[in-house]
Amino acid sequence: MTACRAFIAGCAGTVMLPEESRFFRDARPWGLILFRRNVETPEQVLALTSAFREAVGRSDAPVLVDQEGGRVQRLGPPHWPRYPAARRFHASRANDPMAVREVVRLGARLIASDLAAVGITVDCLPVLDVPVPGAHDIIGDRAYADEPSTIAVLGRAAAEGLMAGGVLPVIKHMPGHGRARVDSHENLPVVDASHEDLAARDFLPFRILADMPLAMTAHVVFTAIDPTGPATTSRRVFRRIIRGELDYRGLVMSDDLSMKALAGTLRERAEAALAAGCDVALHCNGDLAEMRQVAEAAPAMAGLRRRRAEAALQRVRHLPEPFDPVDARARLDSMLAMAA
User: Is-catalytic flag, 255?
Assistant: First the structure.
């Protein structure tokens, strides 16, 4: 891995602006994340991902996207198929666990095929959050089920489908966003559940999938662990839970630092997240002035964070498994139609 720095950035639109290209060349972010504002056609997305890699001088520089299905799908019609929310996969065959696992893996494999074709190599999926009654619907049907063991099984199926197609999964939002009663895009959620309840329910899917290569944090305060600090910026949460109880050894990125759950300047937020234990700071909105602040806080990808990044990329350095997307799409549609 050639020299780069421990942050992921966005860009403003569908083409790489000259000032963005200069920024990426000089600041050398580890990766780029795309949103709907960056997506128009397959040819355009491929040109954009190629332009980013040319700017940073790394052909394997990660390009990320949130392509879950349902409400959270950045690439959609008319150029890409619409995918259902995670909950619908479970509903399609709730009485047949093996069939549910198959349809989830198949859906993720199809998503990987879509993404790989346009140079996107990381999907921020699966959602491993466990919803509870009364929680904000920011998670809602993005969760596969209500039971943590079912979420773990289906989350692993999704991760396997992505990696089979050469796309890295990101488990999120570690160590759990399902109890949040407010949307962390707008406010800071505070969860008062006991450590015992969190361990038995919220943390369980992340513990089971601790072998996954990439994870994203939750901007959530767990008062039983740290009374004031959200997980993203809490050394205690990282030490005791993420690297301790969950025994997670992969690369951890923050959730988007521009979300309103966090306080301070963008530089202060990035510094806090990286000091707490995040390997990489994630900034999504494409605001160049904010990106410069994040870049100023981001150290070189060196030492343990570099080894974690290299180990993650190694997980998809293989030929994708044989795959017929037309046949797979027909099978997926048939299986989902049974629940309609």
Answer: yes
